[in-house]
Each structure stands twice: as C-alpha cells, then as structure tokens.
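Objective 1.3, modelling of assemblies. Example input:
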Amino acid sequence: MALLVVGSIAFDSIETPGGSVDNALGGSASYFSVAASHFTKPRLVGVVGEDFPDEHRALFAGCHIDTAGLVTRTGQTFKWKGRYHTDMNTRDTLEVHLNVFGEFKPELPAHYSDSQFIFLANSSPTTQLSTLAQIKNPQLVLADTMDLWINIEKGPLLMLLPKIDGLLINDSEAQLLTGENNLVKAGKAVLALGPKFVILKKGEHGAMLFSGPEVFVFPAFPTENVIDPTGAGDSFAGGILGYLASHNHDPIASLQKAIAYGTVVASLTVEGFGLDRLRHVTRLEIENRVKQYRNMLQIG
Amino acid sequence: MALLVVGSIAFDSIETPGGSVDNALGGSASYFSVAASHFTKPRLVGVVGEDFPDEHRALFAGCHIDTAGLVTRTGQTFKWKGRYHTDMNTRDTLEVHLNVFGEFKPELPAHYSDSQFIFLANSSPTTQLSTLAQIKNPQLVLADTMDLWINIEKGPLLMLLPKIDGLLINDSEAQLLTGENNLVKAGKAVLALGPKFVILKKGEHGAMLFSGPEVFVFPAFPTENVIDPTGAGDSFAGGILGYLASHNHDPIASLQKAIAYGTVVASLTVEGFGLDRLRHVTRLEIENRVKQYRNMLQIG
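Predicted structure (tokens):
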C-alpha cells in the first residue's frame, strides 16, 4: 500500500565528539524515506533549492523513492548545523537557514492523493492540516511535532490531533503539551487529545506506545557504535510505517511489531554519519537485528 | 536456598512534590529484605541504635525476615533526609547522619556462614570484602556500589569485582568507573573488570544486563503512581535475588526472568512512601504484574 511522507530535505552540518560532516543530505523526509525504502517504495513530498546536487537525487533514485513530489524552487536548500555533546543525547543547534523550506506549502502530485499510509513529518500543524486535506482516503496517518509548535501553534495542533491516527512525540514535548511530569500520565493525556495512539520517544532509552487503555514499552536496541544520532527519530518513523505499509495486517494490531522494526532501523541509522549507514543497510541486516531484539526481550 | 543481605538500616525523611514522611524505616538492607521476603526468608545483617523502635522490628518479623544478624549499638540509628525534584528522577540529599552505621564492621552470626545467595548492599568495598570473607561457599554474590567508592576506594573496589558474580551499578557510576559515555561500552568495560555479569540501572528507564558476550535490555514497568522512588534500586535487587534463591534453576541462566521480577517489585515499591506499598504487596500482585510486563514485551 502506498506510503507518503511530507517533510523537510536539508543540508546538515554535524559535529560529534568523534568527527564531523558538512552539508550531508538530511531532513525528516530524507531520513524517513530512506528508512521506509527498505520495506516499500515511498512517495516523497518536499522542496529543495537550485543548489540541490544530482548526487542526492541519485541517492533517492537508488533507494527507489518516488520523487514526483520533490519540487525545486529558486533559492537555497534548507541548511542546519548542530553539535552533539559528549553524551550524544543532547545537542546545540548552531545554525538554521530555512531558505526555500520556509515558504513551502506542500502540494501533492495528483497520483499521490490515493496514498494510504501518511507521515506528516515535523512542520507547522497548519501545514500538516492542509497537507492532510489533500489525501482522499488515508488508512493510517502518523504525525510528528516539536516544542516550537506546542508553544506557538497549540490551537492548530489541537485541531490536528483528532484527525490523525498516531502522534509521535518525545518525552519533554509530551510533558510540555500536557503539563504532566510522569511519562505514563503524559502519554495518556496526549492520547486524550484525540489520536488513536501515541508513540512517546525517549531517545537512547527507547519508546512507549499508548494505544487505547494499553501501554507498551520498547527499549532502544543497544548499540555501542553511536556515530551520529541525527535522523534517529525520523528513521524510527520510517521503519514503523514502512513495515506497516508493506504488510496486509491490521495496522493498529501490528503496531508493536512495527515499532520493533522502527527501533532496529533507528539503531542502524545512528551507526553512521547522516545517511551513510542507513542507505547501505540490507533487509537481511534489519531482519537479523529484529531477531536479536526479539531474543533480548525474552524474559523466560 | 538461604539468602543473605548485608547493608544499612536507616530512618529516612523524604520530601516529594506530592508529600513527605519523617523517620520512615529505610536503608538498603530494609528495602532489599522486605522485597526478597515475598519469595524467601532472607537473613539480615545490619546495625541500629538504641532509638530503633519495636514497631520496625515487628515489621521485619511480620515479613519473616531472619534478624539474628541485626545488632543494636549504643548511639543513634543512621538517618537520611532527602528531597525529590519535580521530575522524581533526581533528588538532593539534605542530611546524612551515619551514627552507628559509620563504625559498623559486619560480623555474621555463625549460622549465616552457609548462605548461598548474598547481596552486599552499597558500602565501602573494604567492608564488602571483609563480609564476603565470612561466607563459606556462596553460590551467587551480587554487590552494589556508588560514586563515592569509585572516587575514594577504587583500589578495594577493583579487588572486589573479580570475587563477585554480579555488580549492580547505575548508568552514571558505570560511566565514572570506566570513562565510557556509551552505556553499552560502559557495561562491557565494567564486565571486563571481573564480575560474571553486570546489571546497569537506568532509573525510570529500566536496566541492562551484560552477561558474557550478551546484552539484554529491560524497560522499567510503567507506572503512573510514582509516590516515592526511594528504595527502588535495593528492592529491585531484592526481587532479583529473592526470585533466584527461591528456585532451583541455574541462576545465571535465570537472570533475565529474575530481573523481570526485580523490575516489577521496584515498580511496586515506588507506588508508596518508604516501605508502605512494598510490605503489603501480595505474591499474586507480583505474579500478575510480571504477566503484564511479559505481555508488554511481546512484539508479535
């Protein structure tokens, strides 16, 4: 079933305690779609400037990503520069230049409107709402958000939440949105705002799923090769929706398995700078790591 | 098989955002032994002052804890006062009065020397070594430690590690001891210092087990009723060793299941002030929550 992502495409300059990279292909839609491409042929909607090089287009093409929705505008591509602290869990944003992404109002190519699995990557809830209105009959919509929108566009965010199936939100954002410090209470309070399920991300500590009355917990897959955490959250989402879109199961009933795939894909992403590791991963590596993860959770 | 704990017994005064309690029965040996008492009849070694009231002795007796090793000395019982921050994950120690615990050199009653499962709760590694020397033929020794001993008694700690089976250590302490920021690397580096296994505690984010070449991850049992986190680590240990001591399985092969029990016991502990909840828990509640935990980890 067709999977659509609407999000950012960026040039990322990243410094970590172990190294650095300049102007690597990044952005939520890039990470999501490359992650999902290991399961299905994702459709991408995003915007780049005239400076977007052929090698990045070739990367998308090589991953069999449908780029009919990738538009090029006069100006420069979104640029982000960040530096990770020693613990790799916190980072400082050093520079943000939205460039062509700042004015972007996504317009879906006609053949995208029948997409069934939708990822509304982090952007203004107003934009997410107008994007969602262009989809005819979505089967499952997952949205991401961030503290900025909770602070400056809470109204539109609260309008969006009952219209989507799932919200992806990190721990501190869930606390900010709900005023609850306890993560179980915060997750349930987000759920009460309208989505069918909430995936609460805890970075290196994994994730929690709130679905109806049930709470599930997912530790992160433990890896000692954390090279660059950038894109972990978006590739986590790409693994989840990629898995769901490529199987004919009831998606809500398959969420736990899908989150296991997302967890594993995210753990592979962070083992290289930018998309270096994620783009070269094989489906067999993913399956083997899911098996390892499954064994790890067997408590006998 | 007989389970022994050597540790502190204290009067705890605790402030949380939701309430406070004064001079509640606390200390590592209290939490450990009450937790373990749900599985077996633990033997306790500790020291209290003349101010230790009959009601606390009655609590131990009611839990069928063997207090032959509980000695009373002239002076006052160990006192601790702490205040938890809003997030319940961090706390400030406001007062510490070691009192009779400061001079305590544990001497085991003769009939304790055949104990097979041993918990050396947090204390000076020198004291832990001298305690261990009094056990004839232990089957499994688990020790706890803290940043203080890593800083001021690293030598004795490094002597202790090859003599024990398992070390319980929290994330920041493992990083301090090994200089490794990545928790997988830190856990493996602690393992290389001699113990057969390492249980790395991450507070509300659960725990990791390093055993031989294998790494296992355990999320915390999600509870929205966090009343008082005091004693979570020691009751976690009590659940682990209580489970192991009450079963005739190979303890190393049963560690994952034991850690699931420890996780559940710790989650029950934090649902009340001091020992309020833990002492009244039934074995059925523990078993039901272990079932819930097991279901939660099924990824389909």
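Chain A has eleven helices and 13 strands.
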